[in-house]
Amino acid sequence: MKKVNVVAAIIFSGDCIFATQRGYGEFKDYWEFPGGKIEFGESPEEALVREIREELDADIEVLDFVLDLEWQYPSFYLYMSCYKCVLRSDYTLLEHEDGRWLGKDELDSVNWIDADVIVVDYLKDNM
Question: Residues 91, 54: contact at Cβ < 8 Å?
């Protein structure tokens, strides 16, 4: 079984968190926290800064580690590290269909990718 190591940005602005809707692939139309695969030789934080630049054409500041999670999908095993971040520039959606700032009471208003539901549940308890 293929193992995939990824990082995800939990981007805060005030009491809201930024979520993105995938525009491609197996999970098209599902919502996620932006991020992606860690490349060889990168730290998780470096990978996150690079991925947000690639996906959102934006600069972020990685503030704190939030949580690690593991999830078994039918075709791969996911290991995801999540970090609290803030935007340091404007953004442009380059790979996603949509992006939204969601308050705690709005987190269940979108259809999250399975693994990201764990993050959402954590945030609802800890925001």
Answer: no
